[in-house]
Amino acid sequence: MILMRICPREFKYTVFLSFDLDAESAEVYMKRDPVSMSFGRYSVKIGVKKILEVLGDHGLKVTFFTPGWVVEKYSDVVGSILGDGHEVALHGYLHEKLDQLELEEELLVFKKSISAFERILDFKPKGFRAPYWRFSGNTLNILFEEGFLYDSSLMDDEKPYILEHNGRKIVELPVDWRLDDWPHLEIHRLPPKMLLEMWMEELDYAARNNGFLSLTMHPSCISRGARIRVLTRILGVLEETEAWTPKGCDLASRIIELLGK
């Protein structure tokens, strides 16, 4: 079955707006220097608060993909996200590159991460995003076995779809490097206005074609200084163009309803 339209009829198109709240997890995993770690801490010190304020101004509830280690270390910050009605989904334990791990090591990552969610947040995450969007040959099977509702790591489609294995189903909310703030703003150091211009073109295309767009941002990146204006402008455009911007769990549930019968 080809999914022609995802959003409810009162909307024109669908945007999955999400944030990867890594803090300094990757830097700790790689044993980086104190300055590098401080860069990651910006997100929990300042970034999340700025983002929650902008989201609140527009009445949006979105998804934050968060490593289990961040849930443990910054439970107050994660609690503020949940308190505002947003979803917190899983993003590894210490932002590991799963494709570099043996099966037992990867299983331990999932066990520790899920345990952190259940112990501190009192729920099991429904969604998963692989750190660096890198799967091992075992990752998908683990997601099926752990009963995740959805994943958001793959890049082989422009619209969500369903993966099936042994009678189990997982919704895939596909992503794209072009629609991630990190490569543009942190690796290539592009001016924010260039990122905004590119994303505006993608939003326009999706709106004209009842399409789907997954925008990925990082609190340590998009919220620094004037960059926050990119988020503010994007949210204004989503409102003006009648976009549906659900949390990942709600979007995945709708995909199951539309395609999973």
Short structural description:
It is built from eleven helices and nine strands.
Describe the structure.
With 261 residues, this protein is an alpha/beta fold. The chain has one domain: TIM Barrel (Alpha-Beta Barrel). It contains 11 helices and 9 strands. It has helices at residues 25-29, 34-57, 68-73, 75-83, 103-121, 139-146, 181-187, 192-208, 219-222, 228-240, 248-259, and strands spanning 13-20, 63-66, 87-90, 127-128, 150-151, 161-165, 168-172, 212-217, 243-244. The strands form 2 sheets. Strands 1, 2, 3, 8 and 9 form a 5-stranded parallel sheet that branches. It has a 4-stranded mixed sheet with strand order 4-5-7-6, sandwiched between helices. A hairpin with a 2-residue loop joins β6 (161-165) and β7. α8 packs parallel to α10 (228-240). It is globular and about 45 Å long. The model has no long low-confidence stretch (mean pLDDT 95).
Number of strands: 9
Q: Secondary-structure element sequence?
A: EHHEHHEHEHEEEHHEHHEH
- The biggest beta sheet, please? 5 strands, parallel
The count of domains is 1
Name the average pLDDT. 95
User: Which architecture name does CATH use?
Assistant: Alpha-Beta Barrel
The DSSP helix count reads 11
- Terminal Cα span: 11 Å
Low-pLDDT residue spans = none
> Given the C-alpha coordinates, what overall shape results?
globular
Class from secondary-structure proportions: alpha/beta
Top-tier CATH class: Alpha Beta
**Gyration radius from CA atoms, angstroms:** 17 Å
How much of the sequence lies in strands comes to 5-15%
CATH homologous superfamily identity: Glycoside hydrolase/deacetylase
Helical coverage, percent range: 40-55%
The CATH topology? TIM Barrel
Oligomeric nature of the chains: single chain
